[in-house]
């Protein structure tokens, strides 16, 4: 009987140590650390560097001095190959043309990779 009580107490203590580690960061500190790791300074690209990405299989565009890798979107582009007309170049005028629905303005952020070097 005594052995059973000791085993039970030992089991409970072991469970407490497993469920509540002693060196765990606070939730706020953990979130702040996680956000700091995700938020990075934007990378900058020169026009020459962007110009190298001018193919269907490697397509970057510039819109208002921001660089976007739209390679994964080329095949889905409703305007077909029109997106390739300015691949590796500034596409600001075409992007803000009347042919685009307002949803493209919400979507473009998903493709952002950095800023154009000034």
Alpha-carbon Rg, integer: 26 Å
Write down the overall mean pLDDT: 80
SS summary, helix count: 5
Distance between the termini: 79 Å
pLDDT < 50 stretches = none
CATH hierarchy class name of one domain: Alpha Beta
Main sheet attributes: strand count, strand direction, barrel closure:
5 strands, mixed
How much helix, percentage-wise, in residues? 25-40%
What is the CATH superfamily classification of one domain?
Cytochrome b5-like heme/steroid binding domain
Q: Tell me the overall shape.
A: elongated
The fraction of residues assigned to DSSP E strands is 15-25%
Structural class of the secondary elements? alpha+beta
CATH topology of one domain: Flavocytochrome B2, Chain A, domain 1
Order of neighbouring strands in the sheet with most strands? 1-5-4-3-2
Topology:
Layout: H1 2-19, H2 27-38, E1 43-45, H3 47-51, E2 54-55, E3 58-63, E4 66-69, H4 92-95, H5 103-107, E5 112-116
Parallel strand pairs: 1-5
Antiparallel strand pairs: 2-3, 3-4, 4-5
